[in-house]
Design a protein that fits this description.
249 residues, mainly beta, 5-stranded mixed β-sheet, 4-stranded mixed β-sheet, globular
Length: 249
């Protein structure tokens, strides 16, 4: 119960109050960029055991909860700029693919209103389910290869949606919904860049899922500790790039 409350608190802290966002020109737009790095000794992450449909999925999958690149850059962290109410147009589309019995991508960030779809590229049944804290968001059966279901209208609030496959307990992912297009997922080197930011001082937050193993749930699904969040205030000058680096331990 304590773990569930901690995870829910992290989701609520990430979401914050929704703002009404308006697309508008951004004179003298700036940017924020940086790196998320891991400091200290990373946890040992064993491969995930595939318990069902091994003929289609294989026997094991890599744990993607903490992926470190060169110089311990962390892939799959999400950086958000908060409080922007007017600015650039959103990217507009995202697809979460069930591919090779893993979710691709493991972490996806979208803006409220972006066209967002769930797809299956496999010849096996996937049952993709998403929850925001304890609130169900979608519950989709995808029995056919190349099947795709639009979930845009179901994404009604900002926050971190945890995604699982009820047909394959080893499969997990995250969908981060933000109230503006000012977000980024870190790349293989742990880097990110968010362009087109109106000049000003903002709260910048970094989110990363939990990565220290806590065993399995009753369905055999891997459990980890609560997601991490880090925040800092950053001033973005006209036409300039501010730096905001973050650390995980």
């Amino acid at each position: 119960m304590l773990r569930r409350l901690t995870m829910l608190a992290a989701v609520v802290a990430l979401a914050g109050p929704a703002v009404a966002y308006e697309v508008a020109p951004v004179p003298d737009a700036g940017a924020v960029a940086g790196v998320v790095r891991f400091v200290g000794t990373p946890p040992r992450l064993d491969p995930l055991t595939v318990s069902r449909d091994r003929e289609a999925c294989g026997d094991q999958k890599d744990a993607e909860v903490l992926a470190l690149g060169p110089e311990r850059g962390v892939r799959g962290s999400v950086v958000l700029v908060h409080g922007v109410t007017r600015g650039k147009k959103a990217a507009g589309e995202a697809v979460l693919d069930n591919r090779g019995c893993v979710f691709v991508s493991h972490v996806t960030a979208v803006t409220l209103g972006d066209r967002t779809r769930v797809k299956s590229s496999d010849d096996t049944l996937h049952h993709t389910r998403g929850t925001l804290g304890t609130t169900p968001v979608f519950n989709l059966a995808l029995p056919s290869r190349e099947q795709m279901i639009d979930i845009t209208r179901r994404l009604t609030s900002p926050g971190a949606i945890r995604i699982v496959c009820d047909a394959h307990p080893h499969m997990t992912a995250w969908l981060i919904v933000h109230d503006s297009p000012y977000h980024a997922v870190t790349d293989e080197r742990g880097g990110y860049r968010i362009d087109g930011v109106p000049p000003g001082t903002y709260r910048i937050s970094m989110w990363h899922e939990g990565y220290r193993p806590r065993g399995l749930d009753r369905d055999g699904r891997p459990l980890y500790d609560a997601p991490r969040t880090r925040t800092k205030d950053v001033t973005i000058a006209p036409g300039a790039t501010a730096t905001a680096d973050f650390e995980l331990r």
